[in-house]
Design brief:
heterodimer; A: 414 residues; alpha/beta; Protein-Tyrosine Phosphatase, Chain A; 9-stranded mixed sheet; 6-stranded mixed sheet; 15 helices; B: 242 residues; Rossmann fold; 7 helices; 28% helix; 31% strand
């Protein structure tokens, strides 16, 4: 159990940081200095342990699905906010939830784990369950090599004690050389043959899947779990979210096998996209949707999942560390789906690179503006009758949230 | 019927790591916008080197270290056909890993020397540390060239080998002699990503003009292509921190 003084000091720093409008980094840093194993102590006391969710694309949405399904099964779930520093973000979330006497009122923790922090985290806390979604090419200069990302995820799987749920259609996850070394049981999720063509990044896997996404149309998924096919109308949009939901369902079903599948699928139907992953907000009567695009595969999936018709489109790209410093990745995305309707605005520090990119795809563009605030205001003033959609790189998503927060009520996300 | 150019994409399956699709797209579009069609041949491991005979332009992209290692044993088999084709006047652009393949040899981290195609009189030594960041170079032929570098190789040009450009800011070939890339006739080698060609269309047009001249036997005047965003994109690229 952690020292109550750590919690008091951490809370004070958190309150002070909040007054200043700051984030999660400082309270986390202070607590880490005071009590380096603060998070380890709290998380290792949880009766059902820790669930980790990792992979290149879809982590945040999958964590939300897993959390809400476990809650539907009657569990108290602790989950983390995503921040710039993983461990400090976890500590900051813990500070908000822990009692002053050092008790965390939760049965299980579901944590989104960025690959970059994977190894240091699992060396401190062994997860009981791990879900690995995919290993795709990320921002080109973030890790250097995709095989390195696969190694990081390998370390996570090897340190998991009970169950690892893996994507059998992802060649790097399916070809895992460590399969024999795993202490935990492995379950696979997959796609039926008909759906594989929708996921160009994947190659058909051979493993026997515990859960299959069997079909997806009109936002209704058919998911085959334990040889029974369930029809699940989804609130989440897009086929890649349906696939990640299949993975989450397989994982939760394994954690709480006694909960009827119908209870889980009913909860799955109700899950909304987290903000920045397709959730809409209302800004003075106009619906605005932010879609985070961090890498070529994610951007491609997003463009294919959201219909460009009857919608005004903006793209915001910057080149800070969180976005990827090298903008080359924009050329690995196919913008063909935007050809017909064009793009109303591009913004962010690399707006003109994005404009040039569209030029070579012969997508009509109305305006480019490097300043995000000016770009957003001008975009919102165009075609007020249409819903507005913004595809945004990571740091531009954070900035746009702040700009939109002054005009709309947003879900609390850090 | 429109006139057609053939572009050979060297080891496209292994060497497409850093936005190289963009370089191919720019070559294709800038040729098409001037009324030429472009046929792209993907040259893969094990393919017949006679395919080089059809090429009017040779492109080699960059690849992750792990995937390019498989290619080095192939170099010997294709080196002669590649060299002959380039010596006959076919233009070539080699980025990153391909630039290293076009050199005389590559020294691995373990100290092993792998023989290259010898288009450029240069060699590369791999190092643990990657050199990454925005880079600006100046070429006597192409003016200012802008891009982003991300490589773990340190390349040394041998005596008499012309560089592609001089480094203004960035690392370049080796961080010591302020050279970046190499140029031998119409063959260009460079570490620049970005990708290279969208923001440096003068390089793309040089390659296209050279390919057309090679194909049709006479110099071709390329029509200017105005771009509404190019100058601003170049301005921003130059102003970003490394």
């Amino acid at each position: 159990m952690p020292n109550p003084m750590t919690i008091v000091v951490g809370r004070l720093v958190q309150a002070a940081a909040k007054l200043r409008g700051g984030g999660t980094a400082l309270p986390g840093l202070v607590v880490e200095k005071l009590e380096p194993d603060f998070a380890v102590k709290l998380l290792s006391e949880l009766p059902l342990g820790v669930v980790l969710v990792s992979g290149t694309n879809g982590k945040t949405t999958s964590v939300k699905v897993v959390t809400e399904l476990l809650q539907a099964a009657g569990l108290k779930v602790f989950t983390n906010n995503t921040g710039s520093n993983f461990m400090r973000g976890v500590i900051s979330s813990l500070l908000r939830k822990v009692s002053i006497r050092g008790h965390l009122d939760a049965d299980i923790a579901v944590l989104e784990l960025d690959e970059a922090h994977a190894v240091s985290f699992v060396s401190a806390i062994k997860p009981r369950y791990t879900l690995l979604l995919n290993v795709m090419r990320d921002q080109m200069d973030r890790f250097g090599e995709i095989s390195y990302t696969a190694e990081l995820l390998t370390a996570v799987a090897c340190n998991t004690t009970d169950l690892v749920v893996l994507n059998r259609e992802d060649a790097l996850l399916a070809a895992i050389p460590y399969k024999e070394k795993l202490a935990a049981e492995v379950r696979w999720f997959g796609l039926t043959d008909e759906l594989r063509s929708e996921f160009t990044a994947f190659v058909p896997g051979q493993e026997n899947a515990a859960a299959l996404l069997a079909s997806f149309s009109g936002n209704t998924a058919h998911i085959k779990l334990d040889d029974t096919t369930c029809e699940v109308p989804l609130t989440l949009k897009g086929i890649y979210n349906a696939y990640n939901a299949t993975a989450a369902l397989a994982l939760v079903h394994a954690i709480v096998p006694e909960t009827p599948v119908a209870v889980l699928t009913a909860a799955l139907s109700r899950v909304h996209s987290p903000f920045g992953r397709g959730e809409s907000v209302d800004v003075n009567g106009t619906s605005v949707e932010l879609i985070l695009v961090k890498n070529p595969s994610g951007f491609d999936l997003a463009l294919r999942s959201f219909d460009a018709n009857d919608c005004a489109t903006m793209i915001t790209i910057s080149d800070d560390y969180g976005d990827g410093r090298d903008v080359s990745w924009l050329y690995e995305v196919d913008f063909g789906s935007l050809e017909q309707n064009g793009v109303a605005m591009v913004s962010g520090s690399r707006a003109f690179d994005m404009a040039l990119r569209l030029e070579y795809n012969e997508v009509a563009l109305q305006a480019a503006e490097t300043d995000l605030k000016i770009g957003l205001d001008r975009f919102l003033a165009t075609s007020p009758q249409l819903p507005h959609r913004i595809f945004c790189s990571y740091t531009t998503m954070l900035s746009l949230r702040k700009l939109l927060a002054s005009q709309a009520t947003l879900e609390q996300v850090i | 019927m429109s006139k057609s150019l053939t572009l050979l994409n060297l080891f496209s399956r292994h060497l497409n790591g850093y936005g190289d699709e963009g370089n191919l797209l720019v070559l294709r579009k800038r040729a098409e916008w001037r009324g030429f069609t472009v046929r792209i041949i993907d040259f893969e491991l094990g393919d017949n080197p006679a395919l080089f005979e059809d090429a009017d332009l040779i492109f080699g992209g960059d690849g992750h270290q792990s995937s390019q290692m498989a290619l080095w044993p192939e170099v010997e088999r294709i080196a002669e056909s590649l060299l002959q084709r380039i010596e006959s006047g076919v233009p070539a652009l080699a980025i990153g890993a391909s630039y290293q393949l076009f050199g005389e040899y590559l020294e691995t981290l373990e100290g092993e020397r792998l023989k290259g195609a010898g288009i450029f009189s240069a060699h590369t030594v791999l190092e643990e540390q990657r050199k990454t960041g925005n880079i600006v170079v100046l070429s006597s032929n192409f003016g200012e060239i802008l891009g982003y570098e991300n490589h773990s190789g340190k390349t040394t040009l041998h005596k008499g080998q012309e560089p592609l450009a001089q480094v203004i800011s960035g690392f370049g070939n080796n961080g010591e002699d302020a050279t970046e890339g190499a140029r031998s006739g119409k063959a260009l080698g460079t570490y620049l990503h970005g990708p290279l060609l969208p923001k440096n269309p003068q390089v793309a047009d040089f390659l296209i003009a050279a390919a057309l001249e090679q194909r049709f036997g006479e110099p071709v005047e390329l029509a200017l292509l105005p771009s509404p965003w190019l100058e601003q994109a170049r301005g921003v690229a130059k102003s970003r921190p490394r």
